[in-house]
Amino acid sequence: MSSLTLALDAMGGDRGPAVVVAALSRALHSFPNVHFILIGDANELKPLLQQEKLFEHPRITLEHTDEVIEMTDKPGQCLRSKPKASMRIAIEAVADNRAQACVSAGNTGALMAIAYLKLKTIPGVIRPALVAPLPNQAGGQSFLLDLGANPVCDSDTLFQFGVMGSVLAREVAGIENPKVALLNMGEEEIKGHDTVRHAGQQLKASSHINYIGFIEGNDIFSGRADVIVCDGFSGNVALKSCEGMARLLFDNLQKSIKGHWLSRGLAWLLYKRFKKSWEWLNPDQYNGASLLGLRGVVMKSHGNASANAYFSAIRQAVAEASTQLPERIHDRVEAVLLDDK
Amino acid sequence: MSSLTLALDAMGGDRGPAVVVAALSRALHSFPNVHFILIGDANELKPLLQQEKLFEHPRITLEHTDEVIEMTDKPGQCLRSKPKASMRIAIEAVADNRAQACVSAGNTGALMAIAYLKLKTIPGVIRPALVAPLPNQAGGQSFLLDLGANPVCDSDTLFQFGVMGSVLAREVAGIENPKVALLNMGEEEIKGHDTVRHAGQQLKASSHINYIGFIEGNDIFSGRADVIVCDGFSGNVALKSCEGMARLLFDNLQKSIKGHWLSRGLAWLLYKRFKKSWEWLNPDQYNGASLLGLRGVVMKSHGNASANAYFSAIRQAVAEASTQLPERIHDRVEAVLLDDK
């Protein structure tokens, strides 16, 4: 892997910059060829770096700013009112070629707005998509897009999400011929609305895509598809619904274990086994949603990510930057557009 | 409760008429004032009724037909090609006032198409909605609509779903002032697309609705809202995603219990406790999705419902018919429309 530089927005996450510095410490060890630009309030960051024995580390450039985009800030307003926000500087580092990727745990709407404005889309790409890898039952990962960047999508946009998701699954997850599916309310071709049906026809007709048809919400984690395409509204609803249901089941299971002396006594054993069986679903393992289709790698970490979770987002950003994902997407989109002519 | 008649489509479910007859046996006992019209192939039904000692029961009218709508039939085609289908006769019994409600475990699309054609919507109602009661963590039930009858909805339709769902929650679940929410991809008022935001404004402005704002997918089972409104595409995706996640977690938990000699030995105990803690989420308990907004009660049972699940659908139909739900919806929709003038 050749030398890379990542820009990290140290501010804006729910847990503050300590999490980012701890993740950075792990990343310096795991990625010996990667440089990091750490952007945020130097008064907060210096002591944290000193604690982690990273102050004046040769592969860290500290860039001070005291402007932070808050979770409550409106995306459009930040653009005008906070020109020196840490998130914006991180994105501009990518736009200016000082970094090949950036990571932020801040306000998603602001991240999308600034990234869209500063990085622009790859030629031919209609809209960038927010995509995340999800663990699946088959032991691999599936990519779900869009997760909320585009509440409403036309069929051309959904088709392009299939193309871009396919490149991501191949380049980053190493899946040879990724199976692409559209999320729908039934598997039959007549199901759903005009947009999803038309996107299905477009994907089916394309020689660039291994399209397997419609899947339903209960197949998101099954591994039937490597890439699952939907509009941002449905994707967000699906993911949040799954998260809610998982949390509900875990909470109730815990209660049920605690409710009996025998099971309570065995709780440690159960918990251990249970936890092990669920490692593949641990959100820390798959933190990091990327904005696909931009002229640079932009990685969104969960707002309340732990250090391990933020590290996963860094790892994902390194993977996308080192495979030159934006260039790969550019090539594929160009090929698809040429075919259509 | 005054005397009611229910029309049961005995055919069309995945498990055949035996399930329906077993459910009917339980229903005769539970609802001593309800008459049942049992519609289907008499050659199959007679032996089943004899087995259950229900043949020539005074509260059962057996209506023979050998036409059945299959799961693979296209809704539009059934209307022309199968005029004597058991499902259609059941709906026509309601349209002709021979029954106050009908129940079917058959093809959902066909049920909606025939019910819409034969029963028509209540005056002022734009579209009927498919709605199901879901158990919630607060120990009650929440109603989610639409579940797939209307893949795309405008804001007026979503608003009406809020009105109709509110009547359902009050009349059938006895919730005094039902909390109505819109499913969205965030809780802030700026989130989502124009349609959901506009529907939010309409619901907020109405004095007929206890509107609490947007909720996300992870709140579907939390009990924060008694009525959760969305378009049929999102509703279907949300419900299927939850089902898929629940199944996934149960499967993996089972594997994890079986994987260890100690936990395997204790599996019976765990399973018992676990099952008990999950009774509120047992699909058998909340089977039955109704088509709201029609001039009659139409209840859809899961296709693969067990006898207990089919019984739940009958119970739900009895509840809606005995509270004269269509009339209550009619009154409320009329009041809302008058207010708008």
Outline the structure in words.
The first copy, chain A, folds into 2 domains: 1-125 and 293-341, Isopropylmalate Dehydrogenase (3-Layer(aba) Sandwich), CATH 3.40.718.10; 130-285, Isopropylmalate Dehydrogenase (3-Layer(aba) Sandwich). Chain A contains 12 helices and 11 strands. Chain A has helices at 17-30, 42-51, 75-81, 86-95, 108-119, 155-171, 194-205, 232-258, 261-265, 267-277, 307-322, 325-340, and strands spanning 4-9, 34-40, 60-64, 101-104, 129-135, 141-145, 179-183, 210-215, 227-229, 289-292, 297-300. In chain A, strands 3-2-1-4-11-10-5-6-9-7-8 form an 11-stranded mixed β-sheet, with helices on both faces. Chain A starts with a strand and ends with a helix. In chain A, 52% of the residues are buried. Chain A is 46% helix and 16% strand. Chains A and B meet through helix 8 and helix 10 of A and helix 8 and helix 10 of B.
Overall tally of domains of chain A: 2
Shape of chain A: globular
The fraction of residues in strands of chain A falls at: 15-25%
Biggest sheet of chain A, strands in spatial order?
Answer: 3-2-1-4-11-10-5-6-9-7-8
* Residue-averaged pLDDT of chain A: 90
Major sheet of chain A: 11 strands, mixed
Described by its quaternary structure, the protein is: homodimer
Distance between the termini of chain A: 37 Å
CATH class assignment of the largest domain in chain A: Alpha Beta
Query: What integer value in Å does the Rg of chain A equal?
Result: 21 Å
Low-confidence stretches of chain A: none
Which fold name is given in CATH as the topology of the largest domain in chain A?
A: Isopropylmalate Dehydrogenase
The structure class of chain A reads alpha/beta
Total strands of chain A: the figure is 11
Q: What would CATH call the architecture of the largest domain in chain A? A: 3-Layer(aba) Sandwich
Number of helical segments with 4 or more residues of chain A: 12
The greatest inter-chain interface is formed by:
A-B, 55 and 55 residues
Q: Helix fraction of chain A?
A: 40-55%
- Spell the H/E element sequence of chain A: EHEHEHHEHEEHEHEEHHHEEHH
| CATH superfamily (homologous) name of the largest domain in chain A | Isopropylmalate Dehydrogenase
